[in-house]
Amino acid sequence: MSAVALDPDVTLRPMRDQDIEAVVGCERAAYEFPWAADIFSDCLRVGYNCWVVDLDRQVVGYGIMSVGAGECHVLNLCIHPRWQGMGLGRLLLRRLLALARAKGTDTAFLEVRVSNHLARALYASEGFCEIGVRRGYYPARNGREDAVVLARAL
Questions:
Q1: Mind spelling out the 3-state secondary structure of the chain?
Q2: How would residue 5 be classed by pLDDT, with cut points 50, 70 and 90?
Q3: Residue 145 known to be catalytic
């Protein structure tokens, strides 16, 4: 898989081991309960589709997706809060879904926190529909938070 240059300063490219420190930095800036570095390493090791958003040679976001049995699952999609609102998350989501289509998948799934209204708006605008709720799926400051399960035909 090759990198995709979107404009002179933004590139979507496959994640490398040496990106993990920057990816974890984005994760920690964006989420109160971030993934640990070893989770990202494991995603690379098992061959998930792991991509980064490179802005001026700096990793400012990433996406991780598994593909199998005719479907894909977007496991994590994150843009550093400093660079949110620039359309980078949308570009990355579209890239992941294009990769899934190229591998013959027909349905995309993901979970999102009930409270993450910006992400939910992005996913709705990209054709994702709510198909269920996972009760207590995410850790939260005062216990657990539900996840909305979304799906989209590809």
A1: CCCEEEECCEEEEECCHHHHHHHHHHHHHHCCCCCCHHHHHHHHHCCCEEEEEEECCEEEEEEEEEEECCEEEEEEEEECHHHCCCCHHHHHHHHHHHHHHHCCCCEEEEEEECCCHHHHHHHHHCCCEEEEEEEEEEEECCEEEEEEEEEEEC
A2: low
A3: no
